[in-house]
Each structure stands twice: as structure tokens, then as C-alpha cells.
Amino acid sequence: MDFKDVLYGRRAINFFDPGKPVSEALLDEIIGLAAQAPSGFNIQPWSLMVLRDQEEKLRLQKHAWNQFKISAAPVTLIVLADMDGWKTGNPFLEKNFQEMVRAGDMTADQRQWFDGARESLYGASESRKVAFACKNTGFFAMSLMLAAKSIGVDTHPMDGFDMDAVRKEFKIPDHYWIPMLIAVGYFDAAKSLSPAKWRKTVREIQVRFDT
Ligand SMILES: Cc1cc2nc3c(=O)[nH]c(=O)nc-3n(C[C@H](O)[C@H](O)[C@H](O)COP(=O)(O)O)c2cc1C
Asked: Which residues of the chain have pLDDT under 50?
């Protein structure tokens, strides 16, 4: 599929065909493609909880404005952003450092600099920790939705949910922010898709504050 068609064709679809499953292999392909997303220092602070079971999806739906698409879609993902992903001792952070040294992108004696850089960039305040986790995980989530579309699978991102209630329901540790849920499946052909939404123009997007 042409990339422009993917960009224009991806829509947040409200109606999923409950009779059309997304196989584990297909979901793995989508997640594998999304995993190519970039992240600061390649820390990749994202994780997914994959819900397929109807009872589990309904447990999520009740904390998410009762949005019906959560249980209608064959798969709904709880997207997790690790606010501690940058910290020394985090297993993926340590793996990442070893990989950077192995690849020659960093030397072992740069470790102190690396620790200080992450602390000042990502650990300086609570808002920095949330920003670190969510900006990187946002790239992953966007990649996932575009990857899905590129192979004919539809999605719907949602932040209309009670994060504390979802955290409690699924015993999600406090160091994860939950930036969004993503329903994954196929558009219900019996329904009609709403017209494409408006977008800011290229001119409206560009700003300056210093003139
Ligand atoms: C982070 C995020 C959260 C969203 N949350 C919801 C939601 O809870 N419920 C909903 O119906 N739509 C939600 N949307 C869908 C947006 O309304 C939709 O993406 C936007 O109107 C543009 O439409 P399009 O995606 O079809 O182009 C969300 C989208 C994003 C990116």
C-alpha cells in the first residue's frame, strides 16, 4: 500500500466487525512493524497489554466511558508508557547500553555521561518523566496504527478512560502512564464510515513566538 494511502486511509473507526478476528500472527506482524519506531537513546519505553477475551474487554470498557468499540473489536490494546524506562537498572535500559557499546555507538567509559544525560533530560521533574514516557510511546502507537492500516487492519485510539480505575482493574504498576487504548480489527462493512475529519492547514501548523 502506498504510504500516502496509508496516511489518508487510516481512520479512527467506530464500528468493528465482531465476527472478523485478528490472528495472533497478524497482530505480531503489526507490533513488530510498530517496534521500528524511534525513541530517545533508543530506550523504547513502551509495552502493550493485549486483551482478546470478551470478559476482559468488558472489564476495560466499563472504565472507558462504556465505549462499545472496546468489546466489539477482536483485540483491544492497553498501551503502557514506562516513566522509569530511562532509569539505571531498568533491564531494557541496561540491554540498550550494552547494545550501544557493542555497536560502537558509545564506549563503556561514557556510562557516567549517559547516566547524567538521562537524569537531566528525563528525570528532572514529574512532568519530564511523563513527557519522556508518552512522547516515545506516542510514536510507537502511531506506528502501530499506520502499520495496521498498511496491511488492511483498522484501529481506534482512545484516551477516554479513567486511568486510575484501569490501573487498579488490571493491577498495572504505578510507574506506567497509560497514554491510550487502541482497538484493533476490521471495519464493519454494514456501517458507513463518517467523512474524513478536518485538519489544520500547513500554514496554521507553522508558528513563531519571537517576531
Ligand atoms: C490519543 C487519542 C485519543 C482519542 N480518544 C478517543 C476516545 O476516547 N473516543 C473516541 O471516540 N475517539 C477518540 N479519538 C479519536 C479522535 O477523535 C480521531 O482520531 C480524530 O477525530 C480524527 O479522526 P480520524 O482518526 O478518523 O482521522 C482519540 C484519538 C487520539 C489520537
From this structure: none
In the block, cell 557493542 appears at 102
Closest CA to 146 of 30, 27, 21: 30
Residue 154 burial (C-beta neighbours within 10 Å; 0-12, 13-18, 19+): buried
CATH number at residue 129: 3.40.109.10
Print the domain residue range for 150. 3-205
Q: Ligand 1 atom 16: the closest Cα is on which residue?
A: 12
Q: Which residues have CB under 8 Å from 156's CB, separation 6+?
A: 12, 13, 14, 16, 69, 73, 182, 183
Determine the residue of 16, 180, 187, 198 to mutate for testing ligand 1's pocket, defined as the one with the most ligand atoms within 8 A of the Cβ atom.
180
How remote is the C-alpha of 83 from its chain's centroid? 14
CA of residue 158 to ligand 1 center, whole Å: 6
| CA gyration radius, the chain | 19
32 burial via Cβ count (<10 Å: 0-12, 13-18, 19+): exposed
The per-residue pLDDT for 18 is 86
pTM, two decimal places? 0.97
How many structural domains comprise the chain? 1
Minimum CA distance residue for ligand 1 atom 4:
158
